[in-house]
Amino acid sequence: MYDRLFQLVDKLPEGMKKPILREIAPIREVFLEQRPARLMLVGSVGKSVPEFLHTACGVTVETGEMSGGWRSYKLSGRSGRGEAQILDARFDAPDDVVAAAITHAAPDVLIYLRENLEPEAIWTKAISRVAQSGAETPIVGIAYGGEPARVRLQALFASDRQFSMRRSVVCMPDEEEWAVGEAICSVLPNAARLEFARIAGAKKAQAEIAGSLLKSFTTVCGVIGLQPIPLADMPVLTTLQTLMVGLVVYVSGKPVNVRLVTEFLGALGLNIGAGILFRESARAIIKIVPLWGNAVSGFVAGAGTYAVGRAAISYFIEEAPIAETQKLFHRLLPGWDAFKRRRLPSLKTAQTMEAEQVESKTPPAEGEPK
After folding, report:
1. Cα separation of 241 and 306, whole Å?
2. Running DSSP on this structure, what letter comes out for residue 273?
3. Is the Cβ–Cβ distance between 231 and 294 less than 8 Å?
4. Do 297 and 225 contact (CB within 8 A), yes or no?
5. Domains of the chain by range and CATH?
6. Which of 55, 50, 74, 81 is nearest to 142 (CA)?
7. What is the pLDDT of residues 77-110, one digit of tens each?
8. Do the beta carbons of residue 194 and residue 34 sit within 8 Å?
9. What's the rounded Cα separation, in Å, for the pair 306 and 310?
C-alpha cells in the first residue's frame, strides 16, 4: 500500500513532492520497516514464556526457532497474527548466553515479571540482567498478585538506579483487559509497535498509530487541495482517502480488501465523487470569502480527509456502531463554523480587502494623477 502511495506522489508536480514526502515519512517507518518486537524477560520464573504471552496479551502461542539466543514465537490474537522474539534472561539463564543474545540484537523492551512473594535473589539477579541491556532500553513491570505486588514493584523500581533512570511502566494482568499489551506497546519503537499492537488487540496503541496516519494524510490532502487547477486534484484526493481507510483497517488487525473499504465509504454516504463534495463545500465558502480561494480549498480537502479518517478509526478500531460513526463523520465535515474557528478573516474584513484590490486595479480617471 505504501508503494501505491509513493507512486501516486511521484506523479504530482515537483513543487509539491518535497513537503508531501516529508509528511509520509512516518508512514514508511511504521509500515515498511516493521518487524517483530524483541522482548527480554527478567524476574520471576513462575510462568513459562507461552504462559506469559497467553495470559498477558490474550494470544495463542506457537513456539518457533531459536536464532542468536532469541526464540521466535508465532502469536495469534483477536486482531491478527504475527511474531515476537523473546530472550528469556530470568534467574537460571546462563550469563554468557544472555550477553551473546544482547550483542546479536538489542532488546526493544525489558519485561520484569514479579510474583507477590518473590525471593530477594531474583531481584538481585534482575538488576544485573538489566545492567547488561542498553541504558536506554525501557522496562515494563508486570505484577502478579494484585495491588500489593504492584506497589512493591513500583517501590523496587524507584529504589535502584538501573530501573529508576529508565522509562518504565508497571501494570497488572488482571487490572483490565489488554493492560499488559497496551503497556508494552507504549514503550516499543515504531518499527516494532504496529505488529504487536495488532496481535495483542491493543486498541489505544492502534488508535495512536492510526492517528499519526491521519495527521499525515490530512496534511498531504490539504497541500494537494491548495492547487489552483479546478477539479484536477479529485482523483488524487479520492485515492488518498481510500488508501488511508485501508491502512486504518490494517492497523486494526482486520483483513484489508477493496469491498470492505468501499462498503464503509458507502455507509458514510461517500463514493468516487467524495472529493467533489469537499470541493463544492469550498466553493460555497469562496463565494463569501473570495480572496481566500486556494486556502479554503486546501483546508476543506484536509478537513474532509480528517473526517473520513477519524470516522474510520471510530468504526474499525474503537468499534463504534456505524450509526454513531456516521454522526461523527457528518459532525466533522467542513462547515462555516469550522472556518471561523480557523481564524479566517471576517466577512466585513474580506469585503474591504476585495474592494481595496478592485480599487487599486481601476485605472485613474482622465485628469487625475497616476
Report:
1. 9
2. T
3. no
4. yes
5. 2-31+203-355 (no CATH), 37-200 (3.40.50)
6. 55
7. 776 788 999 999 987 888 889 999 999 999 999 9
8. yes
9. 6
